[in-house]
Each structure stands twice: as structure tokens, then as C-alpha cells.
Amino acid sequence: MKTFVITLALSAMMGAVFAGEKEEAIAGEKEEAIQIVNEAASAVSKDKSTAISEIGNPKGRFIKGAIYVFAYDLSGTMVAHPINAKLVGKNLIDVPDAGGKMFRKEIVEGIKASGTATVDYKYKNPQSGAIEDKVTYCKKAADLAVCAGYYK
User: Fold this and answer.
1) Helix (H, G, I), strand (E, B) or coil at 36
2) pLDDT in tens, 123-149
3) CA angle, corner 117, sides to 121 and 93, nearest 5?
4) Residue 113, domain extent
5) What is the four-CA torsion angle of 90, 91, 96, 101, rounded to 10 degrees?
6) CA-to-CA distance for 152 and 150, rounded, in angstroms?
7) What is the CATH classification number for the domain harbouring 73?
8) DSSP symbol at 74
């Protein structure tokens, strides 16, 4: 019984350690997403055409591991995506996430209202192939919503 209690206590402690590590990793990814969006938004403000090409480049400077920049125009049309080029040119405003949430409408509405948006939704993680919770941060640059997200 004593061994069971010790094992249970150690398991609980390890779970707490892993949970703390995950929270730290998520906080780091959030900061990385914000930083890369700010860099891309600055590039869009300086030279929109060149920045869009770079955002859409699968080996470009706006990809940091699992975090990558993508951009919509203010109608919800994808203008650049480095991972899924098939989305470029498509208006996705009315396409919901895996749970039915109209997250792109939230992005566009937030950008129009305040110049930034942070939206939670469910999306297929290109690394794991699984539908996961994702948080995306977006910032207005010129007439675009420049975005990057991370999985929770």
C-alpha cells in the first residue's frame, strides 16, 4: 500500500511538472507567433508584393518550426500560405473549423475593428496530422490580416 501511495504521489508530481513544461512551451510559442507576425506585418508595410511572396515561400523567413505566417485580405481570401498553397486565392470566410466555428470571420472582424485579432479554433496540425486546438494572432498591415498560430 505504501509503495502504491508513493507511486501515485510521484505520478501526480510528474504530471504537474509536464503540465508546467507544456504551459511554458505554449507561452514561448505565443511570443514567437506574435514576434513573427510583427516582422511580417512590418515587411508588408514596406513592400507588400515582396512580403506576400516571402510569406508564401515554404522555405522563407516567416516560418519558425511549427509556427508560420499566412495572410488573408479583408474579405477572407487567402493571399499567402507557405504550407498549403492550394488555399491561396480562395475566399475562406464562410469555411468553418473542425468544430463549426467561423474563425476567419472573427479574424477579419477583429482586424477591421481594432487592427489585431487573437482567435481560438480547431485545425489540422500539419506536423501531427491531427485536429488540434490552435490559437492564431493576427495584425493588420496594409489591407491584409497577417497571421501566425500555435497549437495548444
Assistant:
1) helix
2) 988 888 899 999 999 999 999 999 999
3) 60
4) 2-151
5) 140
6) 7
7) 3.30.450.20
8) T
Count of domains forming the chain:
1
- Per residue in 60-89, pLDDT (tens digit) is 999 998 899 999 999 999 999 999 999 999
- Residue 146 CB neighbours (<10 A): 31
Rounded to 5 degrees, φ, ψ at 93 are: -55, -35
Q: Is 47 helix (H, G, I), strand (E, B) or coil?
A: coil
pTM: 0.81
Give, in order, the Cα–Cα distances in Å from 60 to each of 52, 98, 125, 127: 11, 28, 19, 18
Say how far apart CA 63 and CA 53 lie, in whole Å: 13
Amino acid sitting at position 145: A
Say which residue the cell 502504491 belongs to: 4
